[in-house]
Amino acid sequence: MAYQWSWRSFDDVSTDGVSTYLHNMFAGAGWSVLTALLGASLALAIGVAVGLMRVSERPLYRTLGAIYVEIFRDIPLLVQMFLWYFVFPELIPHRAGAWLKSLEYGPFYTTVVSLGLYTAARVAEQTRSAIASLPKGQMMASQALGLTRGDAYRKVVLPQAFRMMLPPLTSEMVNLMKNTSVGMTIGLLELTARARDMQESAFRVFEAFSAATLGYVAINLMIIGAFRYLERRPRLKLKNRTTPSAKEALS
């Protein structure tokens, strides 16, 4: 018996008795985008910091950075999410654990933190590789012109490293967006969870997951487009710009 497609099923009222399935799909997409945005912000902040630790002159910082990367990169995201959501509240003091478990948007917060920490390990390695690929004279010339090591990183090294990171960072952000679907396993009502709800209640598996597929493709195309725009902007000329880069940073 052939399957009878019915896109009109999106106009049916969902199991909550109020919203339509179409409304729920858009709501799920909104939660996916918000989760990805916050997770990406956390991943970039922590990842760049850990990446700088990985290239630090201090052995302690390099060791701590390496430990972070190996721990969060080697453990599957799903396992990390379960650890943060189910195990961590049981390990901390009872009152704090009870407060965490009572949070209204607990699955959302847990998904953001898990995605951020997991992706940060990968961003850290991209940061380390980008900095290591820059000419060694960049830092020496910057310090010779009076910049502190921190200012040299902030004004000379990191801007160039970030531009070199854009291609791999594009793929990382696309993967992060797709990984928001793992939040479904702890109760986050994101796009995949909404599609699954429609499949189980309305028995419209093809329509539900076709819509979810189109949603992910559309969102990720926008992410790719945004990073392509950044890549098309005038590139920094790394060759023969060791001293001029530092001079521009002082101006």
TrEMBL record:
Gene Ontology CC terms, in alphabetical order: ATP-binding cassette (ABC) transporter complex
Domain of life: Bacteria
A GO molecular function held by the record: transmembrane transporter activity
Chain segments annotated as transmembrane: 29-53, 65-87, 208-230
Pfam families with a match to the protein in the record: BPD_transp_1
Protein localization: Cell inner membrane; Cell membrane
InterPro entries linked: AA_ABC_transptr_permease_3TM (IPR010065), ArtM/GltK/GlnP/TcyL/YhdX-like (IPR043429), MetI-like (IPR000515), MetI-like_sf (IPR035906)
Membrane topology, as annotated: Multi-pass membrane protein
Principal cellular location given in the protein's record: membrane
Keywords carried by this UniProt record: Cell membrane, Membrane, Transmembrane, Transmembrane helix, Transport
Domain ABC transmembrane type-1: 29-227
Sections of the chain in a coiled coil: none
One GO-annotated biological process of the protein: amino acid transport
Family designation: Belongs to the binding-protein-dependent transport system permease family. HisMQ subfamily.
Stated name of the protein: Glutamate ABC transporter permease
Species of origin: Bordetella genomosp. 10
